[in-house]
Amino acid sequence: MFTIHERVTGRLVTRDWENLDTDRQAQVAEIQMKGNTTMKTLKLTFATAGKRNYVLNIENAKDDLTLDEVKTQAAKLMKVLINRSGAELTELIKAEVTTASTTELQ
Fold first, then answer.
1. pTM exceeds 0.85, yes or no
2. What is the pLDDT of residues 41-94, one digit of tens each?
3. Confidence (pLDDT) at 83
4. 67 and 73 in contact (C-beta within 8 Å)?
5. Where are the domains positioned within the chain?
6. Is CB count within 10 Å lower at the N or C end of the chain?
7. Could you count the other beta carbons within 10 Å of the beta carbon of residue 48?
8. Are 106 and 32 in contact (CB under 8 A)?
9. Higher per-residue confidence, 3 vs 95
10. Residue 105, CB half-sphere, CA atoms under 13 Å: how many?
11. Beta partners for 12?
12. What was the pLDDT predicted at 28?
């Protein structure tokens, strides 16, 4: 059984989910969903002149990324990035998008 705790005119009221009308259930569900977040991270793996891989994670990636678009932008990044030992990036090995969901417990 699922219960709802809410303030009604200053008092804390507990109600059973099943006893709420469908409109109120929808309102409560919408409020609870505001605590949920989904984040997409673009992970780019590059080869370097030093024979080691360089990984770049970019948070909040766009939803509609294409491989061609990523390759075009990665080519621009390779011109301005180096790894810790100073080796230049030579090619994009792979591009991945990771999706992570977080739900705030209430």
1. no
2. 899 999 999 888 999 999 888 888 999 999 999 999 999 988 888 899 999 999
3. 86
4. no
5. 3-34, 37-103
6. N
7. 20
8. yes
9. 95
10. 0
11. 7
12. 58
Q: Tokens 């008092």 map to which residue?
A: 11
- Beta carbons of 42 and 97 less than 8 angstroms apart: yes
Between the alpha carbon of residue 71 and those of residues 3, 22, 35, 62, 80, the distances in Å are: 50, 48, 34, 15, 15
Alpha-carbon separation of residue 16 from 1, 20, 21, 22, 30 (angstroms): 7, 7, 11, 13, 17
Residue the block writes with tokens 């294409």: 66
**CB-CB contact of 55 with 43 (8 Å):** yes
Mean pLDDT, rounded, for 21-36: 60
DSSP for 40-57?
A: EEEEEEEEETTS-EEEEE
The secondary structure of 64-93 as a DSSP string is T--HHHHHHHHHHHHTT-B-TT-PBEEEEE
